[in-house]
Amino acid sequence: MADLVLHLRSVYFQQIKSGEKQFEYRLDRPYWIYLLFDRSYDHVIFWDGYKKRSPETVIVRPYRGYELQTITHPEFGPEPVRVFAIYAQGVRP
Question: Is CATH 2.30.130 the classification given to domain 2-87?
Answer without folding.
Answer: yes
